[in-house]
What we know:
Layout lengths: L17 H10 L5 H12 L6 H8 L4 H19 L2 E11 L25 H14 L3 E6 L7 H13 L1 E2 L2 E2 L2 E5 L5 H10 L1 E9 L3 H7 L9 H5 L1 H7 L5 E5 L6 H18 L7 E3 L21 H14 L4 E4 L5 H7 L6 E3 L8 H4 L19 H10 L3 E3 L3 H4 L4 H9 L3 H19 L3 H16 L3 H15 L8
Helix pairs in contact: 1-3, 1-11, 2-4, 3-11, 3-12, 4-12, 6-7, 11-12, 15-19, 18-19, 18-20
The structure holds S-adenosylmethionine and iron/sulfur cluster.
The site of iron/sulfur cluster has 9 residues, from loops.
Enzyme class: lyase
Organism: Clostridium algifaecis
GO molecular function: 2-iminoacetate synthase activity
Amino acid sequence: xKIDQKYLDPNLKDFIDDDKIWEQLNAxxxxxxxxxxxxxxxxxxxxxxEPEETAKLLQIEDKDLLEExxxxxxxxxxxxxxxxxxxxxxxxVGNNCINNCKYCGFRNANDAINRKTLTMDELGxxxxxxxxxxxxxxxxxxxxxxMYDADFIAKTIKKVYSTKVGRGEIRRVNINAAPLDVEGYKxxxxxxxxxxxxxxxxxxxxxxxxxxxxxxxxxxxAWRLYGLDRAMEAGIDDLGIGALFGLYDWKFEVMGLLYxxxxxxxxxxxxxxxxxxxxxxxxALDVPFTLNPKYRVSDEDFKKxxxxxxxxxxxxxxxxxxxxxxxxxxxxxxxxxxQIDAGSxxxxxxxxxxxxxxxxxxxxxxxxxxxxxxEAVRDVCKHGCIPSFCTADYRCGRTGAxxxxxxxKGLIHNYCIPNAIFTFKEYxxxxxxxxxxxxxxxxxxxxxxxxEPAKQDIIKKKLQLIVDGQRDIYI
Length: 475
Ligand code: SAM
Ligand code: SF4
């Protein structure tokens, strides 16, 4: 099916049926315990849940059932993804924006913001700082502006890949930008993009309309909703969806994310989104909406939504950003998260210009977790998880349908855990503080012992190559 400009027609009916979602949520109230246990059993088999089932999980109030759900989410996370946490950093390229999203610091009418777009030299300097900290994966972020068209974005991707300092290099560049047309996505595909990420913000049509003023490009709900279909059509098969929690009822948004996943599966031979993001709204400079949003999601509900997503879509990566505080991140991480950012600065030029602290007048919102990469990595080790800087999947063609095939067979362990070990060892040798080195080597040793002896030998041999100076080893 050709998916393009026709989605600009605002009268088209899309795959999010607001009334139906509310009917499903209402019908699921006071769920029966035995029915919930049946849904848990299905989730244990790692079968993607149906909307009626997810609706029931969303209505659980019973404390014991909630505890059971949290421990099941931990178990599924471990079984599918292992105790591995992938690290990345966001890099804000430009904050010019033609839209006026009510919740965003970059909105056009916000005079408190200094507008800035990095030059290619400045972009290179930002990348150098990130490489020197040990990052291998970035997500580039842009406002929506004619300046940030597909050619510009492709140029920034190429600049990032070609910037290398010492042993440092960026091996995967993901993008979070306004939706493009198919021709535009093709240019990014050629430039070697990893994942293209678009958050629908809110799946609720009426709320979407209220928060995105008429006449703005972003006001077109359907253009955004089908933005990733166009990316897929252009050959980009790693797609990231998300909702900005706090704009509307959190249970509705979880249902929206699930329907979006089901839509992908229908359209693309069973391949769902590569990642789901669930940012919560954060305060932004001179953006009154962000101070006390009616639908603010409590920490308790946040934990629930992460666990419910984990049970509902077991094979999709889940991203928890540094918008959240260190404490919340530590609590939520084991419930299903597979990727986090660390050492993040979201001011334009925030890495090279300011090593410490905030630059509010260039930031989109405030971050909750300001730990350095080294600290965050060490803390992840303390929780017994293994940090990963792996970017092999995308470079070996393990994306889209192929990735899902691997993930679904549980074989992710055979690739992802060894690759986590290799890339983490590189990090420890090249960038870590002595304290992190110690904690990291302990985790590596523990993780290796979980493999059968023959596999242990293979991993140890490759590790020795890294100790001897080789880099970028993966299987
Ligand atoms: N401008 C593009 C767009 O809107 O699609 C690119 C992404 S925007 C710079 C990145 C994301 O930040 C948005 O999709 C939105 O979900 C999130 N965001 C905006 N305002 C926020 C706030 N106050 N707190 C947390 N996240 C916010
Ligand atoms: Fe612009 Fe994106 Fe912010 Fe909306 S969310 S104002 S489009 S940067």
